[in-house]
């Protein structure tokens, strides 16, 4: 059981990381969701073996019961990621409304400065080079 | 003390709810916000005085004893940071109230701001790792909304990156917490301090590294800094100011706390990893700043390079180094915020913070120029400002252990910081603009008048930075004691677990 869950955690992290590396916003959001699901399973796993009686109700006197703390932590983490996923989806939708595009955009100011460096290089090689050409 | 420490977190959080209910009454929201944050500042000072006299104080929340229940712990480090944070938060709040138009009209600014305050207080005070994650989430959730407050294209674009990166870092943090719990069976930091020593060194190092990556992303250390200069400048300037002051510093605080309490270096030598990261962070931050043309972007890059100094102090692993790092944070919070507030004054009066459309503001608004000069030179580390004192402390601590390379780099970076400040000064306050500023009222050559409350709030914060220089000796002693407590660990552990 523990091995199965451990493999599940691994697969969720792997798939999530792959999706995170994409340029499409929807995939990034799904990737993050997968990773956080993986984390929740991992939190649950950290409490030990499954199948033990829960803390309240079913455990008889002297019988071992499941560690409630990881369950509480997983619940907290689930609530937080749920809220943030909703926010992220809203933000993604807003981005789509504004740009009609699902891709992560570059930082414009960043690109401008990167171009400055390119021009400086080109000028150093060929001082007569046309600077305006590169701006297009 | 049993009431005051939880109150620092509960009061702003409760007030945030009340503030939300008052969303139609801006004036009441403002009064409530100022009252609560001012109370927070007073409480923080009380805690600082108490802790300075009687050592760390721990409060068990919910009545469960320490390793099981949730504890809030105030030691010298957290009390110091809490006090300076509250003072800064108060100044920025007054500034935001004084700012005409923009974000003031957004009724959710005040509730979110209070949530942010509560989250910052909780992250400084919390005594267990999982709660630290929750505190981070409180801070970040408020910051996600604040940073995308305008909802325009540029903000949504950079906000998206910001949210995704921070969410990923938070997930890594929970992963780390889960693994630590699996390995040790506790998340209470005081308890972990004893138990982490018992597990295999390889596992311990892996866990320490995982936490370092998670906190490092939030603190924007090299190579995890790239999201910061992209997202911070797009937010409204009050938001950027408070982010610059607190968000990355909460990350640095967590690094300091976990590295000293949970993963102290074996043998006490300085940490090559941390020193390398510190050097790279300083250099990359300052070089990035040189290439920029916008005041907010220049300053955002400087946040990164300053984070490098703090990690440098921590990486030395000596009491002097740690003390210098702590004092550096105390100096950095108001100085950096002050710089952003001055930028906001420039932006409010002219409509831009781009160097090429600014110039000659020295004649037109001398107050802004003087305030910039006072904090700008402070950031660069010129005597007699506090920047000089903290950098001197760092350099001395670095030379004491023979970390010549990093110390040399820190001095060079300091000179480049001065270059950046001179560049802003030359671009904004001297000369004449290459193109007209966007605001109609800012054209021509007449005097510019930033709103009074904005000027007053900025001046108050600049006053705080000067006070730090004046009170350097007692502050240095306090930082030294805080650092000694961090290295010794006993007082903290004893306060939480009992002897």
Describe the structure.
The complex is a heterodimer of chains A (136) and B (499). By secondary structure, chain A is mainly alpha-helical. Chain A has 2 domains: 2-105, Helix Hairpins (Orthogonal Bundle), CATH 1.10.287.3510; 107-136, no CATH class. In chain A, 70% of the residues lie in helices and 0% in strands. Chain A has helices at residues 2-20, 25-45, 68-99, 108-125, 131-135. The longest helix of chain B has 32 residues, at 153-184. Chain B has 20 helices and 2 strands. Chain B is globular and about 70 Å long. Chain B has one domain (4-497). Chain B has 499 residues and is an all-alpha fold. Chain B has a two-stranded antiparallel ribbon. At the A-B interface, helix 2, helix 3 and helix 4 of A face helix 5 and helix 6 of B.
Quick structural summary:
The complex is a heterodimer of chains A (136) and B (499). With 136 residues, chain A is an all-alpha fold.
Secondary structure class of chain B reads mainly alpha
Side by side, the strands of the main sheet of chain B go: 1-2
- SSE ordering of chain A: HHHHH
Arithmetic mean pLDDT of chain A: 81
Summarize the amount of helix of chain B as a percent range: over 70%
Helical content of chain A stands at: 55-70%
Shape verdict of chain A: elongated
Helical element count of chain A? 5
The helix tally of chain B amounts to 20
- For the CA atoms, what is the radius of gyration of chain B? 22 Å
Largest sheet of chain B at a glance? 2 strands, antiparallel
Uncertain segments of chain B: none
Question: Topology of this structure?
Answer:
The complex is a heterodimer of chains A (136) and B (499).
Chain A: H1 2-20, H2 25-45, H3 68-99, H4 108-125, H5 131-135
Helix pairs in contact in A: 1-2, 2-3
Chain B: H1 4-21, H2 26-54, E1 57-61, E2 70-74, H3 76-98, H4 109-125, H5 129-147, H6 153-184, H7 189-195, H8 201-219, H9 228-231, H10 237-262, H11 272-290, H12 295-315, H13 319-350, H14 361-364, H15 366-380, H16 386-400, H17 404-429, H18 452-470, H19 472-488, H20 490-497
Helix pairs in contact in B: 1-2, 1-4, 2-3, 2-4, 3-4, 3-10, 3-13, 3-18, 4-5, 5-6, 5-10, 6-8, 7-20, 8-10, 10-12, 10-13, 11-12, 11-17, 12-13, 12-17, 13-15, 13-16, 13-18, 13-19, 15-17, 15-18, 16-17
